[in-house]
Amino acid sequence: MAVTPREVERLYVQVNKFALASHFFWALWALIQNQFSTIDFDFLRYAVIRFHQYFKVKPQVSALEMPK
């Protein structure tokens, strides 16, 4: 079965929107870990990196529309 260009475009939009959500999720997780974890890791720096990426790509990803 062949994949149509429309299916590829739909997948592209979905993957990018889920990737955006992933950046936000891991940034929040890192903020929580920064407060409560006993692991020696710079969770705050990791949160800043993930939030930076979230806000960097948010305008482009938000503009993506699911093909009709």
Automatic annotation (TrEMBL):
<keyword id="KW-0443">Lipid metabolism</keyword>
<keyword id="KW-0594">Phospholipid biosynthesis</keyword>
<dbReference type="GO" id="GO:0005737">
    <property type="term" value="C:cytoplasm"/>
</dbReference>
<keyword id="KW-0444">Lipid biosynthesis</keyword>
<dbReference type="GO" id="GO:0004305">
    <property type="term" value="F:ethanolamine kinase activity"/>
</dbReference>
<dbReference type="Pfam" id="PF01633">
    <property type="entry name" value="Choline_kinase"/>
</dbReference>
<dbReference type="GO" id="GO:0006646">
    <property type="term" value="P:phosphatidylethanolamine biosynthetic process"/>
</dbReference>
<comment type="pathway">
    <text>Phospholipid metabolism; phosphatidylethanolamine biosynthesis; phosphatidylethanolamine from ethanolamine: step 1/3.</text>
</comment>
<keyword id="KW-1208">Phospholipid metabolism</keyword>
<dbReference type="InterPro" id="IPR011009">
    <property type="entry name" value="Kinase-like_dom_sf"/>
</dbReference>
<protein>
    <recommendedName>
        <fullName>ethanolamine kinase</fullName>
        <ecNumber>2.7.1.82</ecNumber>
    </recommendedName>
</protein>
<comment type="similarity">
    <text>Belongs to the choline/ethanolamine kinase family.</text>
</comment>
